[in-house]
Amino acid sequence: MKELFPIVAADVALFTVIDEALRVLLLQRDNEPQAGAWALPGALLKPETDLSLEHTARRALAAKTRVEIPHLEQVSVFSGPERDPRGYSVGVLFYALLPADQAPAVAGAKAADVAWSNVAHLKRPIAFDHREMIALATTRLRQKVERLILPLHLLSEKFTLTQLQRVCEAVMGTRLDKSSFRRRLRSEQALVEVPGDFEVGANRPAQFYRAARGFRFDIDIE
Amino acid sequence: MKELFPIVAADVALFTVIDEALRVLLLQRDNEPQAGAWALPGALLKPETDLSLEHTARRALAAKTRVEIPHLEQVSVFSGPERDPRGYSVGVLFYALLPADQAPAVAGAKAADVAWSNVAHLKRPIAFDHREMIALATTRLRQKVERLILPLHLLSEKFTLTQLQRVCEAVMGTRLDKSSFRRRLRSEQALVEVPGDFEVGANRPAQFYRAARGFRFDIDIE
DNA sequence: CATCTTATTGACACATTACCACTAAGTCGC
DNA sequence: GCGACTTAGTGGTAATGTGTCAATAAGATG
Fold first, then answer.
1. Sign of the torsion formed by the C-alpha atoms of A61, A65, A69 and A74
2. Percent above pLDDT 70 for chain A
3. pLDDT value at position B35?
């Protein structure tokens, strides 16, 4: 049955890196349609309260997440009469990045219906067109990192260069050369050392870095 | 006054190159709100007939244009309660490319309310948030060309390398070096010669080229 | 035929990158 | 204490890509 007004919703691909693999947050659906299948967190636009669709997306995350509001970026719009059996729907896709150390707070021990699923091989059944959404969001994120726009939002405030490299490798799905990686970082001037602050372990300590002032991940609105 | 359902519309920044300048199609509004101001062509989503918002965008173009359906690409979504005085609105922005030789068919002699406006200095008063839309669409297009994704849709099927370079220069707003430009083209293998076909003029003839089979401008959906 | 204009190719310095090797600084086991 | 081990961080060289400028090619024009 066709509706006069479309359903307008925001969906969010929330990424993090766990075990050196890029993962996306999925929720198992309780209700029909597609009960049992896994979907991205999403929310319907509430015109009375949402100042924009980004606001809607934040609300969708807040409903299932106890963490700081993460970095959000718009990816694309999916629309059509057949996407959702409930009627014509317009879904605005965002992606967001969550530092790995905050990931456990989201998918808590009890929550059997919450999963950080490895993007490289999504084994769970995916609801609606969310598999395509995840693929597109992943591609978009990769393009950013390719263009040397560092996914610092996947790390905590302080991090070592090796940690940053591992995160970039997880996003890209390939290994990167240490020497080249660091040379490019130097020329970018995007990072600054945290003087006297080292990560200690069973080997040589590693210098901590943080984002230089004025760092922006969303470089294309100019 | 807040509405229960948002207005959902598609707007299109239709680009072409005239006089070696990147230009965008603007229409002067007849009706309130913002009567007299210039706006991008747009259309409201009709759930009964539009298979997707891209469909809506094509319809918006068809209403004011007599030309072949051009290449369309999604840019971004603009949303909020204040964008349009008629109520909460969700506007999906597309951009499209039109070969320069088809541009006259759009802005015909009679049409005083249709203009190909130079993107570098938009002097006309722009309606709503369409100035921001034009800026974002332009940036997106430039990023593509920067990444060596050739805007072949701005040219007719056959073209010379100099014509292609002029078009890229118009998009980027800078001059490009002939030698470097051609070297990059060679390594890309995106073009093939049209054997024995030359543009003749008051000087040395120029080889015509066309897109190689498998050419795609929309490289990021992968 | 000399001249003018644009097309097309070439040469070279310079910057960037991939790839591999090296040194540095800590812990661990003995 | 000392050598083995592990990871951090730096260098070096060959290959590749780029910016700049110049040279040559192929027409029209007078």
1. negative
2. 94
3. 93
Nearest CA to B91 among B81, B104, B103, B102? B81
B1 touches chain A (CB under 8 A): no
Taken in order of first residue, the domains within chain B and their CATH numbers are 7-146 (3.90.79.10), 152-211 (1.10.10.10)
Name the token pair of B208. Answer: 């015509």
Interatomic CA–C1' length for residue A166 and nucleotide D13, angstroms:
26
Residue range B87-94: average pLDDT?
Answer: 97
Give the nucleotide nearest to B176 (CA→C1').
D19
Q: Name the one residue in this structure whose structure tokens are 């359903």.
A: A7
Which residues are B95's β-sheet partners?
B13, B73
Count interface pairs A-B at CB distance under 8 A.
70
Give the phi and the psi of residue B27 in degrees, each rounded to 5: -120, 135
Protein-to-nucleotide distance from the CA of A206 to the C1' of C24, whole angstroms: 12
Q: Which two tokens stand for residue A158?
A: 């302080």
Contact between B47 and A81 using a beta-carbon 8 Å cutoff: yes
**Nearest chain A residue (CA) to B81:** A51
Q: Locate the DSSP E strands across A119-160.
A: 159-160
For position B219, what pLDDT does the model report?
A: 64
Between CA A101 and CA A156 the distance in angstroms is: 7
Query: Structure tokens of A165?
Result: 């490299």
Mutant choice from B84, B90, B172 vs A, greatest count of A C-beta within 10 A: B90
Given a contact cutoff of 8 angstroms between Cβ atoms, the answer to whether A27 and A108 are in contact is no
Q: Which residue is nearest to nucleotide C28 (CA to C1')?
A: A202
